[in-house]
Amino acid sequence: MNRILAVLKKEMLQIRRDRMTLGIVLMIPLIQLLLFGYAIQTEVKHIPTAVFDQSLSPQSRDMLEAFTASGYFDVTLSVNSYAAVTQSIDSGQAKVGIIFPPDFARSLHRGSPAQVQVLVDASDSMLANQAIATANSIGLIKSQQVLLQKMPNRQLPYDIRVRPWYNPDGITAYYMVPAILGIVVTMTMVILTAVAIVRERERGTLEQLLVTPIKPLELMIGKILPYIAMGYIQITVALLAGVLVFHVPIRGSLLQLYLLTLFFITASLGLGLMISNLAKNQMQAFQMSFFIMLPSILLSGFMFPRAAMPRLIYYLSDLIPLTYYLDIIRGIILKGIGFSYLIGQVTALLVFSIFFLTISTLKFKKKIV
Amino acid sequence: MEYAISTRNLTRCFGDFVAVDNLTMDIIPGEICGFLGPNGAGKSTAIRMLCGILAPSSGSGTVLGYDLLQETEKIKPKIAYMSQKFSLYDDLTVIENLDFYTGIYSIPARQRRQRMFEMLELAELGGREKALVANLSSGYKQRLALAAAIIAGPELIFLDEPTSGVSPTSRRQFFEIIKQLAEKGTTVIVTTHFMDEAERCDRIAFINQGRLMALDAPDQLKQQFINGCMVSLTVPEPMDHLDKLSSLPYVQEASLHGSHLHVLLAQEEDIALLRQNCGYVPEQITPSLEDVFIHIARQRKEGGLTS
What we know:
- The complex is a heterodimer of chains A (about 375) and B (about 300).
- Helix content of chain A is about 70%, strand content about 5%.
- Chain A contains 14 helices and four strands.
- The longest helix of chain A is centred in the middle third of the chain and has 32 residues, at about 170-205.
- Chain B is of the alpha/beta class.
- Chain B is built from eleven helices and 14 strands.
- Chain B starts with a strand and ends with a helix.
- The chains are: A mainly alpha (about 375), B alpha/beta (about 300).
- The interface of A and B includes residues 6, 7 and 214 of A.
């Protein structure tokens, strides 16, 4: 106990003296959150659109009006040839091209389908999906209107009513802010602890510790504890920014959020400590951290839904602590659910923590070479 | 008598290289034993094995009565180790470093202040308690490292080249502290390159190429290994004379010591012969440990050729 306290106190003093790291630890959540919270929008609006209207009729103007009124398409270019449309998409001036054929109004009049061609730059898949879905539904809605006008006494056969729960307005920040919070915490925690043992090895202070009666587990615990506090400070900063700047609603219990976060922090610290015990120097520790962090972020379901992943990758993402924490933090913040729904995730994080800490302790031999 | 350290055929290899080769030695409690030998002789490796932070490849030993292979963790609370490299925390102050080690050695809270005070006194660090270690001069750092290592009052202290890179005044100061500790009954193992330090040890272990060549008191070593009459010769261009002198029948050994030559003659009567031969006046001297060291190292080399 004495020895754990001694290590704890020493680590705190060192952290306090290392102003640079301390600053980074506090600024990272703030900057990342502001940056990504604003920058990352999965909902693409105001897509620059080029229009080639050969019909020049009230009907074509009415249809175009429907496109712009949706808010997804901004007509930025009006051109006079098909080639000009192609050229504007090639050059990136426009992402979408809308082409009305000369017989658009006539076809509509005759009752045969009036065609509208919508060209979409699908090199950006997120934008393309949005544009395609919106264009299709505009087509359907306009068709419905025409049909209902022709047959005023009929009703539509189906009536599907969609209710988007938890985030009815589809605000990306609500979804992103909790996830970014998780990423920031795991990133800083892993990297900070990854260098914790290695640094002592490099500086020669570890050799001195090895000849003392300290036990590996005591050293690990003493090193981890101050960083748990750092993790909580980070989370508090990030939550405050999320609530004050992005107005993210916290629907669940804040107390539960803080309690369950503990397991995520310990899992991240354990991972960092394990890296620290495996790496020979700080450079290696950094490289290993990045090697693990990038897939963690991409496969955790932070941006790309896990449901869309191939089986193998899906199971692989089960091995990432962040995956479980995203369930926990999105669950508590957005869905307002509590511990009873999250037992599985919490257990997983607990298992990770114990696993990493055990490996670190076993791997840490009180020997040099 | 129970020895402080007792080893039998202690060996450590790194790949094909035998760093410590069948080390068998007994260290008497309360003595200062100097490990003397060239760089790479295996002194540090031997000390690391004795501290329990490096596993021996073969052989056995006890340190303070505990088995070197099985009970290393029982040894650790009772020993102190100071490595060649300064190994305290640069970003902590003097007192914070000491405080850390009082915790690591589980010194009871009410004794801590007292112990730290004693250590500051011993290491003559008074007035610098709040100084950041990074800003201390090397002499101070060295004494602080010692103070931190011995804060729990160990029975046995290992010092691996404690005085390298330290000013002569600091070296002397440091060795005084070691003497003080030994007088209180602490056993001290110290490696050094400096002959003047070696002379002050109770016994000296000569280690060369991983092997223990001799272990005895400095005076004993001189008597044991230097048979004959040692003279010092001051000549211009001593290098040129070295080979010529070595080939003379009555010269047993000749070696270079700075600008002088040390020549070992079979008997005192040969001084006159030497004087006639080279034309300079030889001066009879008592052999130094360095002479012994050179003698032993040379024996080993020649022996190595025949065996």
